[in-house]
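Chapter summary example: a protein plus zinc ion.
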Amino acid sequence: MTDDRVQDEVEREYDRDIDDPVTQEKADHYIEMGGLHCIYCGSSHIFDMGCEWDGMMMYQSIHCYVCEHDWTENYLLIEIDLPDTNQHFEYDGQLGLEEVPYV
Ligand SMILES: [Zn+2]
């Protein structure tokens, strides 16, 4: 299958133009869906290229095999679960960690 045929198939399957610009609306949808499809073309043929940590942030690199775009998902470390001691902590943004009831 040629790249053009793959692109046509993706555009039919996801009902979108592969060359449409990424908008805030598309970005919100991408995040709400958990990043399962390419933010550019909508394809599910995306690949996790690995991640890097920097302080509280994690940067997840993603590549799309259909449109060949790359992007990064940025995660913030804000909660910790400790199953051995049945504890759950949420970052309070100030002096340290505050214990909250385990759900
Ligand atoms: Zn794509």
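Key point: The first helix runs from residue 3 to 14.
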